[in-house]
Amino acid sequence: MYKIAFFLIPLILLGDIDMRPRTLYQMQKGKPDLAMEGYLAINQDQLFHDSEFLQEMALMLFHHGISRDQKEYVRLLTLIGAGFSMDERTLPILEQGLQSKLPLLQLVALHQIVRLDCKQTDQLIEKRLGTCHPLVRLEGALILSRKKSPLAFSVVEGLRHQLPPKLCVVMPQMYALMGDAKSKKVLHQLLQHPQETVRAESIIQVAKHGHDDLLPHLRKLSYNHGPFLQEALAYALGELKDEQSIPALRHLSHSAQPEVRLSALTSLHKLGNDDAKNPIIQAARKGDLFAISALGDIPGSEETLMQLTTENPDHQIRINAALSLLKRKDQRVAPYIYVLLEMDSQFRCLRPIRSGAGTLHAWKTVVTNPEDADKTKEISLRLREEILHLSFLFPEPLFLTIAENILVSGQGDLLPETTKLLASLQTDDAILLLNKYRHKIGDPLVRNWCTLALYNIQTENSYEGVLKEWVLQESQVPLMNLRALIPQYEQSSMDRDDTISLTEASQLYVAILEAFLQKQEECALETLIEVIRNGNPLNRFVLAGLLLRAAQ
Questions:
Q1: Of 29, 150, 209, 222, which sits most exposed with the smallest number of CB within 10 A?
Q2: Contact 84, 545 (CB under 8 A)
Q3: Are 355 and 231 in contact (CB under 8 A)?
Q4: CA 379 – CA 372 distance, rounded (Å)
Q5: Residues 201-243: pLDDT tens digits?
């Protein structure tokens, strides 16, 4: 009898043992499935989830995922998850990413730190940027300059004397972005830089950022320079609306160099010289792609553009004419928008081309090169998304036709933006279209993007159930795939500010969970716990960021 009692005592006491340390230990060792089972056992008799403990578990998983003995892709997913959390407590995790020897991890960590946007972010970037890859340092300096951070000037100055000559062309943009007295003084010095490309870029950035107090220095520059600087000067004088320079621009408009001539003509037109329009139209009719693109900013060019779009046999000319016609908000371009949006990214992509000094631009279709296929496709996709947003400015019936064409053809890469724009209309016809395609057979991405759009603007419980079912169904698939990264120093004005983006399937997975969080649905925590417990192990590091946010 005593022996039986002796063995029963530990079993009785076991019920009072706190299982939390063991649960956290399992998470620390990278066993979130067992940790979640432990949590559910601990919390089974409670009416509400233990938010503080769930936050501890998520942070513990991050510490496991970022450890140096982890594989690169695990550390990458951990950094993405830390950014999704929007929680300052993940800064030590992201700091370890900046300290990595791998440039990709440094770049992702940098952008996730910026995403948090708290008091410590700028100091952390300044502290760790010096040990990063030169291109990541360049990216960080640009980010601080764009934010006009008090720390930006010292970071940029430290970088200026260390960059290889071919990257010095990015420096003028940073000083122009900061725009304070010290930065303008350096920008003035860069106007006399020994490298012609840096001088030209300095001229362009002065104009782009409206630093007209430096205009007298531009006027003093000799016009006897080569076409590279002449093009930059012609652009800057027009952009800064310098009427005193009209005689100089007229002189440059007769240059033997087509790009200098066109840059001067477009500046003259900006300054109100209507007689500059006809030479631009003539150049466009002769097939000058830069001139065709320039007509997108010139009223009264619509008929010329329409003729080039419909009658010219050259494919490149038709594409640029259609894009300029779209910029003119001419509804007749609608049939050609379908062609641009349906560009087969597996074989052909749209890629930007620029003039010598970079003041003029146009687009060309190119066959993807295996060496840079992902980057080329990403640039092309960004243009197609921009085309979609410009189409949104058309009357609603016309935009709905364009949107339906995308839903019919199942262009997965355009589904996030298309459904987002449809949801923003919140009209009966837009809702009817979304309802129609949330039942599309054979295309779960179309169905679920449409269902998510309806869920975001309506309150029917049926939408929540369908979305949750898809998330659980797809939980075993490695969904956390990144789109190609385009560094900010390579981005054009039409590009987004963010750099870290997911592919459409991954984006949908995260967007559904974020929608649950935003509406504070009870199913948000339950779904996250379930997919972390039973889903693909690689997804858990990203989902931990959403769990940390949901538990707050």
A1: 222
A2: yes
A3: yes
A4: 11
A5: 999 999 999 999 999 999 888 666 789 999 999 999 999 999 9
